[in-house]
Amino acid sequence: MTAPIIPGAEPESIDGGPHGALVLHGFTGNCNSMKGVAHALADAGFAVELPLLPGHGTTVEDMNTTTWRDWSAAAEEALEKLQARVPGKVMVVGLSMGGSLTAWLGTRHPELAGLAFINAVVKLPEGMSEGLQALVDSGMEYTDGVGSDIADPDVVELAYERTPLKPLLSLLEAEEDTQSKLGTITCPCLIITSRQDHVVPPENSDYLAENVGGPVERLWLERSFHVATQDYEKAEVEAAIVEFATRVTS
What's the confidence (pLDDT) of residue 248? Predict the structure, then answer.
């Protein structure tokens, strides 16, 4: 990091147990968008790890030096840390790119009790990678931000105002690898989807539901946009995740 953490974006490690929950934020966002979910799980008795992914929560210039390899390594490290401090089961929940990381961890860790996805990125439009690569090759580093897609006009996400292209390209490349392994996920999955999402098409959730190997539960949100954890239905999202986590770890 070359800049201090934005106030409110800090990571959290909350004591609890015997079971644990790993909570993962999204691309260009930070822990602030997932604090409600993390605290709801902690209030329900879970030990919680909410890591700040490399390059996030400081400046977009910091993020421009990172890739999927850095974020996935941080997610893996946070999972190992959580598993080391709880004797029971662990579940993972992620928003957007955090959902991508949740799926990636699910393909690598069959011991996980359950996975919860909130507007997860798993399959973006065909040709998008090629288009981004062309922009990168032309010397372009940033494009408009994708943060704060929230229906509630009184809420603003603490996300970067610009999107770094090379990191985004690395996310798309990682998705292609994870897609082929979704069938290896056999634990229960809760898939939460906003019907109106201006960042990640809801079809991503459909693809996820159709391709994971384990049992799937769906929750559709009618009034919230992409950052559903900070939107009109955040209470419903938190309640559904706590209920799911409690059930799969029992």
Answer: 98
Catalytic residues: 96, 197, 226
| 12-249 CATH, one of 3.30.930.10, 3.40.50.1820, 3.40.50.1980, 3.40.50.620 | 3.40.50.1820
pTM: 0.95
Measured between alpha carbons, how far is residue 187 from residues 47, 58, 134 in Å? 20, 34, 38
CB-side neighbour CA atoms (13 Å) of 72: 18
Has residue 181 got a pLDDT over 90?
Answer: yes
Contact 40, 13 (CB under 8 A): no
Tens digit of each residue's pLDDT (9 = 90 or more) over 48-85: 999 999 999 999 999 999 999 999 999 999 999 999 99
pLDDT level of residue 46 (50, 70, 90 thresholds): very high
